[in-house]
Specification:
- It is built from two helices and eight strands; from the N terminus they run H-H-E-E-E-E-E-E-E-E.
- By secondary structure, it is an alpha+beta fold.
- The strands form two sheets. The chain has a four-stranded mixed beta sheet with strand order 1-6-5-4, with no helix packed on it. The protein has a four-stranded antiparallel beta sheet with strand order 2-3-8-7, with no helix packed on it.
- It has a domain of 92 residues: Sandwich (Immunoglobulin-like), CATH 2.60.40.
- 9% of the residues are buried.
Amino acid sequence: MGATPSWDPLRELLSVQKRMNKLFETAFERTDFETHGEVDTWTPVADVYDLPDALEICLELPGLRLEQIDLRVEGDELVVAGERELGREGDGERFHRVERAYGKFSRRFHLPSTVDRAAVTATYRDGLLRVKLPHDGERRGAVRVDIR
């Protein structure tokens, strides 16, 4: 007969620690504590495209109504903010799983000097916010700086 493996409490503890770490990683992966410092925040994903005549930013904001989105230019930044509510109010309702993100959100995008801030336009359809930021003319390329 072969020897049965003995129980190793340290290995069991390390296994529990790995499972707890994984639980916290998945629970908080869509939050941005460094920017907001709050648990009830989330960060919508975004794509930024540099087109020949404009910069275009596309954000995924599914489940929001247009009036729940605040879009503005503040100095050298484009700010997109709002809040997605849970929207469940049933008595005696219990959750088995909540994977979608809810709560406040805010994204800030630094605008290059070539963007015409007065000509920004936006559309919102099917949960996708598209913000078009036209360039104000000639694009400025790299500038060599002499070091003295």
